[in-house]
Design a protein that fits this description.
By secondary structure, the chain is mainly β. The chain has six helices and 27 strands. A five-stranded mixed sheet has the order 2-21-20-19-18, covered by helices on one side. Strands 3-25-24-23-22 form a five-stranded mixed sheet, with no helix packed on it. A hairpin with a 4-residue loop joins β7 and β8. α4 crosses α6.
Length: 410
């Protein structure tokens, strides 16, 4: 099914008295269009009611429930990088950002070279880099500089060209969709964006856009705080994004745009009207605020804030049932590692469909392997436990971080 977005217009909310009611009408329009246009068996949508997590049944969920394998990559310490701010993968290289800029490693962790450098000269980027991505073949690196231009480098770190973004386009995230297209996400702060997202080719030519339709009208004494209207997840040839204004998860394909899920947060949802009233700076604890999403073929996992607490909510696709995962013992979004007894997995989103990654400081991994908890653990794969112990014992505490990769279940 090809979904035609009914939200292709601009509206001034100062003329709307009840934005919550309008939002419900919009969501109803989405449901209606899904019904009348029809869906194939493979083209399935859900209406998901995200109620107060405290009212949901609990369910235990460990790493092996969601993932099929675990792998560690030790990064070459010939070039120390310190704390990793951002990470992205190609089929053969790893792009890493730290306080000094971007560096490239191969998929075995060998250091290759720096990518450009921080500065104000031609081909240089500021230290306030917003985002970057690497092409699937690893030959091109795209750095989003000051939200208004894309700097392009080759795999050797040499500057190739610069693309100025069109007027009115403030980009917050950039990711590759394939070997010739980039997705630019524009939705992140209150009401400044002209577009939800834009797709450009590697030469900066605009191919497709989705215009933003919401314009907030804040009260005089209501501060306008940041509004994360989009949460990107998935990746590759299809990328999903969650739009907080319409409580809808959309899928962007190379030639398509469709609804995946419709979210109903009921009375604990954050509507544009609440933002207009300045609720983001006061009273936010009364509402639910999704902060992150990741998905396997069988599950969708929502990371949410609700009433000053953090929760993991698991949607089982086959039954459309929701569960609260765990009791918080493993922190915000972390999963108990029952594969090898290693550190628990805290996922960092990457634009790869089936891979998630956590960065672990070398001293932290060595301390864990030396702990009684690790020594007494009985993981599913004892041979992996031995391999992890050998890896940790070969590290120095001051070595570069270790990458922990897990592959999501199909």
């Amino acid at each position: 099914m090809t979904f035609i977005n009914p939200f292709c217009f601009h509206r001034n909310t100062s003329k709307v008295k009840d934005t919550k009611k309008i939002g419900r009408i919009f969501r109803a329009a989405i449901v209606f269009m899904i019904i009348v246009t029809g869906c194939t068996k493979e083209d399935k949508q859900f209406v998901v009611k995200l109620e107060d997590p405290e009212n949901l049944p609990t369910r235990e969920c460990v790493l092996s429930d969601l993932c099929t394998d675990i792998e560690y990559i030790t990064l070459d310490s010939s070039q120390l990088i310190g704390r990793i701010r951002q990470i992205d993968f190609s089929r053969r290289n790893i792009l890493i950002c730290n306080a000094m800029g971007y560096s490239l490693f191969n998929n075995e962790g060998k250091y290759l070279n720096r990518i450009g450098r921080i500065g104000r000269g031609p081909g240089e980027y500021t230290k306030y880099i917003k985002d970057a991505t690497i092409s699937p073949d690893g030959k091109s690196i795209f750095i989003l500089n000051l939200m208004r231009e894309i700097l392009v480098y080759d795999e050797h770190g040499d500057f190739l060209r610069k693309h100025k973004l069109p007027e009115g386009m403030l980009v917050h995230n950039i990711t590759t969709m394939n070997d010739h297209q980039l997705l630019l996400s524009c939705g992140s702060t209150a009401d400044q964006e002209k577009y939800y997202w834009v797709i450009v080719d590697y030469n900066g030519n605009v191919l497709r856009t989705k215009k933003s339709f919401v314009r907030l009208c804040y009260k005089k004494d209501a501060p306008a705080g940041p509004l994360p209207t989009h949460i990107l997840f998935g990746g590759g040839r299809t990328i999903n994004y969650y739009d907080q204004y319409t409580d809808t998860i959309f899928e962007i394909g190379e030639d398509s745009h469709r609804v995946r899920f419709i979210i109903d947060r009921g009375d604990i949802g954050l509507t544009p009207k609440l933002y207009e009233q300045g609720i983001i700076s006061k009273g936010l604890e009364r509402y639910m605020w999704p902060r992150g999403i990741w998905e396997t073929n069988n599950y969708v996992l929502f990371y949410t804030s609700c009433k000053t607490k953090s929760y993991r909510i698991l949607l089982e696709k086959s039954t459309n049932k929701l569960y609260r995962v765990g009791d918080g013992d493993y922190g915000w979004g972390a999963f108990q590692n029952d594969f090898d007894g290693g550190l628990d997995f805290f996922p960092r989103e990457t634009p790869m469909n089936s891979i998630r990654v956590r960065t672990i400081d070398a001293y932290e991994l060595k301390a864990h392997v030396a702990s009684e908890a690790f020594k007494n653990s009985t993981p599913k794969y004892p041979e992996k436990k031995k391999a992890l112990e050998k890896l940790a014992n070969g590290l120095s505490e001051n070595d570069n971080p270790v990458l922990m990769l897990v592959r999501l279940k199909k």
